[in-house]
Amino acid sequence: MDLGLNGKSVIVTAASKGLGKATALAFAKEGAHVLLASRTQKSIEASAEEIKRITGNNHVRGIVCDVKKVNDIKNLVQTAIEWNGTVDVCINNTGGPPAGDFEKFDDGDWQDAFESILLSVIRLVREVTPYMKKQQFGRIVTITSSSVKQSLDHLLLSNTFRPAIVGLSKTLAQEFAADNIFINTVGPGTIKTDRIIQLNEKRSAETGESVDDIFSNIANTIPAGRLGEPADFARPIVFLASEANSYVTGQTLLVDGGAVKAL
After folding, report:
1. pLDDT greater than 90 at residue 115
2. pTM assigned to the model
């Protein structure tokens, strides 16, 4: 299937590693012009160069952007415009907020999570939609969490703000569908990223349980029988952000191997 992404202008935030990087790689494989954003210059430039080497696509760049800073978001979008003339696809991604229960967090923690998870999406959508409306095409996908369907233990901030993104996206999908701007959210289950590997290596060192046994026990809780790979997660995003997706908007997709049982 031709996804129609060759030459499309794509922004991916928090793309120096993990799911953001895997998503940027998947777009680059389709021939898109991909602008990767992250807070750290060294890591984002290294990721961009790695993706170029893997794909042979030289239309890949990295840029420093802290999504909590409105001027960084404006600069990110302006850079994409100067480079490619427009923005066709915007992938919103942020790192997860700190774990903890209610009594752990003060107002500063709540404000920081709000700005990082929710306000950053609002600001980025505000910047890209005028260009998408002008060309009567746009695809926006926000990476969320399985917490949008089922609350996760000790992840209060994620349980609060990730579902808010679903409400925002569902509403915006109604507003922008007539302009051929489709807006969806995608939440990961347990995906075997470097961070998950590192966390389980740490757990192994603390408990004495082997890393293989830890992963095997996790896999046994997933109906698909295994953890997801980053590419498993990236592929549905690429479809939702493509011309091939001509009728799906306002939806929430969990890529979790069937782990979440909520309706």
Report:
1. yes
2. 0.95
